[in-house]
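Shapes recur. One chain:

:::
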Amino acid sequence: MKVLSVDDRQENLYFLESLLRSQGHEVASVSNGLQAIETLERDAGSESPFDLVITDILMPGMDGFRLCREIKSRERLRTLPIIVYTATYTSAQDRDFALSLGAARFIVKPVEPDVFIDALNGVMAESDDFRKPDPAAAEGELASSEYLRVYNERLVRKLERKLQQLEESSQRLTELVAQRDAEIERRREVERQLIRSQEHLQLIWNGSSDGLVLTDAAGAILKANPALAAISGVDLPCGGPMSVAAPAWLGGLSPAEGAVAVERRLAHPDGSEKLVELTSMPIAASDGEVIFHRVHDVTDLRRKEAERAMLEAELAEARKMESVGRLAGGIAHDFNNLLTVINGYCDLALRRAPESAPPRESLERIRVAGSQAAELTSQLLAFSRRSQPIGRRVNLNSVIEETVPMLRRLIGEDIRVVTQLAPDLGAIRVRMNELIQILMNLAANARDAMPHGGVLTIATANVDAPPVEPPGPGRIALFYREIGPSVMLTLRDTGTGIPEGVLPRIFEPFFTTKDESGTGLGLFTVAGIVKRNEGSIVIRTSPALEQVGGAEFQICFPRLAPEPGNEISEPEDDRTDDPAFQGGMVLVVDDRPDVRSLVVAALELDGCRVLEAADGEEALRVASEFEGPIDLLLTDLRMPNMDGRELSSRLKAARPAIRVLYMSANPDAAGAAETPGPDYILKPFGKGSLIRAVRAAMRGPASGDA
């Protein structure tokens, strides 16, 4: 809905604008009836004319009564609904007069916002009646003489009140005159106090931090305080009277019958720009009317408001990312349960299928895809900050070779990816998904820096220590540590480079030079991974780079001591040979039937005897009914009604010798034990991992053993 607000007080207009816009309405504001008529006439022929007028009564130029009459007397405007919103004309007669002139509602200030909105909605609900042509209204409007009679009555009533006040004042003055002989000494004291007050006012005038100015009707400065020169940068004499023309930014206002407040920008002579709030009002002086101007510097206030708005936006973005992360963690949890079933049954099928069987190759491909899917869930858990912080021993070259095809799809065909990988590269201890995050984020930034194509070079090398890069033009170092022998990852592009003014801020959260498509979290995430793994980052861009343009990231991680044959984490296999293992009785508890069936089948193939239950209550019942010993409780951590830890505690009370192995698709479900131990196995797991974990748990100490 399009609303025209008419009021000569800026604060009232601001209140209505804020209230109506919060309800989704479009609002335009003017300060008197003349401006309102001009605006309505101009807008009447447009595609989206005004739907409602909200007007005060007491205004300069044309008051609210006359505005109602003018609107209802014009053919193109007579159907427009009007709400009268006043704090001066408040009697029942004023209300009836306003309604007789065509107002739909008469509201007395102040009023609660909810009440005002209800009234507005009521008017718009009745707007069809207002918009229907009313021949009686068109022909039977108040005659001019009748209108003037009622209008004058309103004015006379106001005048009578003023006259009554004047009579009371006159009576009081008469009393004072009658007592003048007794009041002479008191008057002298009053005169002395007046002199002191004038001195105080002069101190306030000179000491005010706001610029204070008096001008005549022609715009010449009569008097100005010292603060005006400090704000404007113009050295104006502070005494008066003066005949100095007011600056252009100080003029242009017409406070004919009240205060006018605006915000203006003024150029400071030192090249800076200031935002000031200018309030002007007429003052009746002994030698005629002068205009008082108050110039308040709001530059810092508006800057702080902008900063606060930015912080609120960043907080909203952080909360959004937290919600997305929580969603990702939940999806990964459910997906891990599904992968446990897929990979587990695939392992069982591979075990049963002969080496030469035709389906074996298909099963092996399914198992590889399942492992890749498990890595994807690991990345989702890392994004939601639920992944375990312990990295594996990996070879960076292998991670790059596996990731480059994905990078080529990410950055597009017009950017060539070149790899320069050291053949004898040492191992590092970093989670694989974190390395992939680093490569993806830096490659995405390089793509944005090369909109017309270019070359992205990815290199690795063994170094004795991270490079030392002193701060300077085109150089910045982050988290530099003396970590000794390291593995260095270098990503270098031929793009536009990083501007010098941007370089110190690139690792700040939510800082981005992109449009709304950028979150400002890419390099912040990279920095967090490097810091968490005790690494360092050095960035070079022009002019520090010898090449023209581009940017180079050098990231170092501590190099691990060589362990022949173990330079890269091997995929899980199905080897479970252990001649000493004699089987045992295992109670399997999981609320997912598919996961439970898989675990039972795998354990039975390994020679174990198995009891199973769908939840904690059923597990306690099964255990109480079984008379023989139960060697191991294998339970999911997250289950309805009773979780795995509570089940374990209650079962240990009845069977102190029982051992416990927890399983879960959510690393956070392990509670305080962020690092999985011998009593914890993370889904998705293969048959080999499950069997090894079960055997290790059975060999471990029973409850209460040291």
